[in-house]
Design brief:
Elements: E1 6-15, E2 18-28, E3 33-37, H1 44-52, E4 59-64, E5 67-68, E6 76-79, H2 90-95, H3 105-118, H4 134-146, E7 152-156, H5 164-179, E8 183-187, H6 191-197, E9 200-205, E10 208-214, H7 215-220, H8 225-231
Parallel strand pairs: 3-8, 3-9, 6-7, 7-8
Antiparallel strand pairs: 1-2, 1-4, 4-5, 9-10
Length: 235
């Protein structure tokens, strides 16, 4: 499967005349898992929001396969840092993402069951989603993101505040999804996690993209002073 082509053209987002992101220009069409790294306030989450067409007013253009990000959201799934849970069952939360897809009840049920399996979420589908643990909620959010069979899944700090076992389970799911041909972009502060998952790296500092590199080359020796300091724990 050919990886979707993400293109940023002079994208900049400002608040109170302060540039919080950019200007960023990049083209990304690598398969596998792209990890977005950088210190707090570097612009990682803003980059993901812009990539998904959620950032709102900004200058420049964001496209996927030459289609504006805002009009192509249906080809992607997004997992937020804070998992929104609906007052529904586990299955109901996942099926909600299929509401406007025009699928039959049988097709929806089959999609939900498949997403539960792919996300390794063993909870009873009829169980209230609000009773899930933190790790289960993250996998529920991931199941909801993949149930639409997207080309790309974007994740903002998906393992933040999870215990090691939950983090390992989530990472294994991401590897399987990536191996199936789905492109993954995720942000993380966990350098060890980035080493385990990344095929390539986007490194941000103070809202600017300062390095875009193959993961092996990046961890062997980043070229930017900011990334060098970050990997040493100095930034």
């Amino acid at each position: 499967m050919t990886a979707p082509r993400l293109h940023f053209e002079n994208v900049e987002f400002r608040a109170d005349k302060t540039a919080l992101l950019g200007p960023v220009s990049l083209t990304l069409n690598s398969p596998g898992i792209t990890v977005i790294m950088g210190p707090n306030g570097a612009g990682k989450s803003l980059f993901l929001y812009a990539a998904h067409g959620l950032l709102g007013r900004h200058s420049g253009a964001v496209t996927w396969n030459d289609i504006p990000a805002q009009t192509s959201r249906g080809t992607r799934g997004f997992v937020f840092q804070t998992t929104p849970i609906l007052r529904r069952s586990v299955a109901g939360n996942i099926a909600f993402a299929l509401h406007a897809r025009g699928l039959s009840r049988h097709e929806k049920s089959a999609r939900v069951a498949q997403a539960l399996t792919e996300a390794r979420l063993d909870a009873d589908p009829g169980k209230p989603a609000a009773t899930l643990s933190g790790g289960e909620r993250r996998r529920l959010a991931l199941a909801r993101a993949i149930v639409t069979e997207p080309e790309t899944v974007l994740l903002d700090e998906p393992s933040a505040n999870l215990d090691p076992a939950s983090t390992a389970a989530l990472e294994e799911v991401l590897r399987r999804i990536s191996a199936s041909g789905t492109k993954i972009l995720l942000s993380t502060h966990d350098i060890a996690q980035a080493r385990r998952l990344a095929g390539d790296i986007l490194f941000f500092d103070e809202g600017a993209l300062v390095e875009q590199a193959d993961a092996k080359a990046f961890f062997a020796g980043p070229t930017s002073p900011a990334a060098q300091k970050y990997l040493k724990g100095e930034l």
